[in-house]
């Protein structure tokens, strides 16, 4: 994979590996603890923090109260029978997941230009998206790149695309370590040079690993460039609602790109925001251009799913669909999510305050400007 300005064969960050250490801020608020694993990037020596799960004070994964309640209701529902869902997943879950990303009034939904597929987790959604991209433009001619990733990014992402046979992968500038913020000008310069029909992998919210997100005006400039240059956005939404506490606000970049008439791919996960760790609840969303053969894409997705995992599990998807379909449950879920987001914000404030008390040189306001479960501290080793 080529990094902006240099060849890149070394590994970057991997959030599935062993944690180098832990930072706990359990004193900030009783009830639950968000454990953050410190990670060091091999290229710049910067320490980054990655939130994995939400933990109780006993060190156990924290399950949302609503999630536990819905599981009990589903287990006692006599109308639910143990059976395999279809290869593309549970219909109700797909509808609700699609609306969570695009909104209920999206024109693409009304025009039947949207394909949704339930997947066993976020990684599976990315992999399926990569597989579909190989014949996105021409059914008879395979496409193998280029795909552009942010620098830095979770290094599992290019690995997933390469496993799908797409080996032409590069990076675009994203994080400025000196300014401790997004370098939009360099980002746009890199993508301006990208060949037509390139795929650009973008974080819709809670960028991994920096926690720094594009503003709405920056998204508008980026979307304009992608439309003009004929680039396809592959949007990542792995922790919807855990960035700002508002699911609709977190999905705004996806909705904006769709509103501009852009075709796009979006990988979603509901494992984090519903506390469904280990149940792997993912979704792949494809917004097709007008006049595209949607039935052919659906058939290709069905064939690919059958060769990769046959069909997803139903348990976690039933929970998510039940919550998103019931206004009372939805309101309760939103309140629980807001408390988790507030917890993350308090941890950031505690870290910034302690760095100031220690007299650590520099400005640390970027710590509280970043959002979500990831953080680029700006500290070296």
Note the overall shape. Answer: globular
Biggest pleated-sheet summary: 7 strands, mixed
SSE string, helices as H and strands as E: EEEEEHHHEHEHEEEHEHEHHEEHHHHE
Supply Rg. 20 Å
How many alpha or pi helices? 13
> What fraction of the residues are assigned to beta strands by DSSP?
15-25%
Distance between the termini: 26 Å
Give the oligomeric state of the chains in this entry, treating copies of one chain as homo and distinct chains as hetero: single chain
Strand order of the largest sheet: 6-14-13-12-11-7-8
Please give a quick description of this structure.
Residues 77-380 form the Aminotransferase class I/classII large domain. This protein has 13 helices and 15 strands.
Report on this model:
It is an enzyme of class 2 (transferase). With about 375 residues, the protein is an alpha/beta fold. About 40% of the residues lie in helices and about 20% in strands. The chain has helices at about 65-75, 90-100, 105-110, 120-135, 155-165, 185-190, 215-230, 245-250, 250-260, 295-310, 315-325, 325-355, 365-370, and strands spanning about 1-5, 5, 20-25, 30-40, 45-55, 115-120, 145-150, 170-175, 175, 180, 200-205, 230-235, 265-270, 280-285, 375. Strands 6-14-13-12-11-7-8 form a 7-stranded mixed beta sheet, sandwiched between helices. Helix 7 crosses helix 9. The longest helix is centred in the last third of the chain and has 31 residues, at about 325-355. It is globular, with a radius of gyration of 20 Å. The two termini are about 25 Å apart. The model is unreliable at about 5-40 (pLDDT under 50).
